[in-house]
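A favour, since you know our structure tokens better than I do. Would you make up a two-line entry for one protein for me to read? Write everything out right here, beneath this request.
=====
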Amino acid sequence: MKDSLKFHPLVEKTKKGIDKSHIYRGCIKNKHGDINIRIGPNSLDRALKIMDSVIKKLEKKSAKVFLNEQQYKSATCVTIFEETLSIDLYEKINITKKKEMRDRFDYDPYNYTPNGNLVLRIKDGPYEIRSEWEDGKRKQLEDHIDDFIDGLFLAAKKGRADRLEREREHRKWEAEESRKEKEEQARQREQAELDSLENEAMRWQRSKIIRAYIEATTDAYIKKNGKIDPGSEFDQWKTWANERVNRLDPLYGKFPA
């Protein structure tokens, strides 16, 4: 078999792991670790060939295609211009109401019938960029593969530009927040210094009043008693009062001779 006829390893892995009998709402239930396709059994071969063509063409254009299995459901991802987008292929479904329920275990009142119309989708691209290509009356999806890939590159380019703009705006916001924070810190330092100055001024004013009171009290005591005896009760009080006012006075001992 020629290399051109071999499936890409991601597609081959999906092909080998698919169970056509495992159907949910008309489509083969995709397993974790497979490429993202949601199609009916009759469209499986066609869907695999389309995804194989998409992946190979993307890799020829130096795009990286991989499965992100960190999510609850694995995602088929494409990295272009350092931007990663997820893609999938799905088949449209005709939904009709059941005329009657099959049995008492049948809880779903609808029939789900795949209609053969396949769609390639960019799942998380910029909203301004086209995200879906599908079978049409004149062209099948196979004829839109190149357009889909061009759309992916356009979405990645736009996504990169948007990301860089967001990063630029974020850096601008961070710089503005840093400026505001520094201004606030400077304001707080200024306010703290002012509060300290006001507190010292109030303490100085109080100390002046107390010193004047001590002096007036001393004058009154001497006027009455003639002198202050060392060790007397008044002498002890005066010593205590001067010690306390010296602690209160912010200028006491601040500028030694």
Observations:
- The chain has two domains: 3-164, 178-248.
- The mean pLDDT is 90.
- Residues 163 and 169 are 10 Å apart (CA to CA).
